[in-house]
UniProtKB/TrEMBL annotation:
Keywords: DNA-binding, Transcription, Transcription regulation. Belongs to the LysR transcriptional regulatory family. InterPro entries: HTH-type_LysR_regulators, LysR_HTH_N, LysR_subst-bd, WH-like_DNA-bd_sf, WH_DNA-bd_sf. GO terms for molecular function: DNA binding; DNA-binding transcription factor activity. This is LysR family transcriptional regulator.
């Protein structure tokens, strides 16, 4: 079905005149007449009766015009939606985050999407790295934004480094270690480690207990209510640090740790315009968070 020809029919029906319709469509009247005639010949119908008083749709013409109006409306809607999809302003994008990146980026990222792309449906999945990889391979999510170290060696993935964020040791302000200087790893021995992953325990005292949880808010509340040492991201706890509720510990025998952040997708897959727009903003937020601590 030729949508342009249907627009010709609708314009003639609206103006009741071939000459005015041609002017409105910015084509010549003979060209418009040929377009209408070709439709009538193809389908064996007469769309309009012509008289001195103007052009009037025939009985069957009125039925065709009603259907044409619906088809043109659908085509116009699809054209608009496709343009929005191409600009990343509509449709759906699903992104996976590790607990660390979710706590650091998602509130501001969600606000950005709602503010600048209200027609976009953003789905987020917060899981462990192995669960996110499985979701990616099953096409449940389009990409992963998270720590690179658990993902770099997985086959079939494209891993692009996009930045780094400092990982630090945080305790409550009244913690026995909070006011001490010259701390070493051995000083952590009497205190449990709170973390989103047991992989961060490497290099810490072997007898140190641990509380592993992938929920940022639970780790934060635990740290504020106990003597646990939280291995977390200071950038995500800036408000508590600024208020004096949380204190960063410096260890003389453990250099600062930078966690590399990567954009991970299936190899050979192109990102949608919406995914590109969202990840560009996530990169900006990540750089902003890193700058706050520099």
């Amino acid at each position: 079905m030729d949508i342009l020809r249907l627009r010709h029919i609708l314009t003639v029906a609206q103006t009741r005149s071939f000459s005015r319709a041609a002017e409105q469509l910015n084509i010549t009247q003979p060209a418009l007449s040929r377009s209408i005639a070709a439709f009538e010949v193809r389908y064996g119908v007469r769309l309009f009766d012509r008289s001195r008083s103007g052009v009037m749709p025939t009985a069957i013409g009125r039925q065709i015009i009603d259907q044409a109006r619906d088809l043109v409306g659908l085509a116009s809607g699809m054209d608009r939606d496709l343009r929005l999809l191409a600009r990343g302003e509509a449709g759906e994008v699903a992104i996976g985050f590790g607990p660390l990146m979710a706590s650091l980026l998602l509130p501001d990222l969600g606000a950005y999407v709602q503010r600048t792309r209200p027609g976009l449906l953003l789905r987020t999945m917060i899981r462990t790295p192995d669960q996110l990889v499985q979701a990616l391979m099953d096409d449940q999510i389009e990409l992963i934004f998270g720590n690179s170290w658990p993902l770099a060696d997985v086959q079939g993935l494209s891993v692009q480094m996009v930045g780094a964020i400092e990982v630090g040791l945080l305790v409550r302000s009244g913690h026995p270690l909070a006011a001490r200087t010259g701390l070493g790893r051995a000083d952590l021995g009497p205190f449990a480690i709170a973390s989103a992953s047991d992989l961060v325990l490497a290099g810490l005292p072997d007898m140190t207990g641990a509380f592993i949880c992938d929920n940022f808010h639970i780790l934060r509340d635990l740290t504020l209510r106990s003597d646990a040492v939280w291995v977390g991201v200071p950038a995500a706890a800036q408000a508590d640090i600024a208020a004096g509720a949380l204190v960063m510990l410096d260890l003389v025998d453990r250099p600062p740790i930078q966690s590399e952040i990567a954009l991970v997708r299936r190899a050979g897959r192109s990102l949608s315009p919406a995914a590109i727009a969202v990840t560009d903003e996530a990169r900006r937020l990540l750089a902003q968070a890193a700058d706050r601590l520099s």
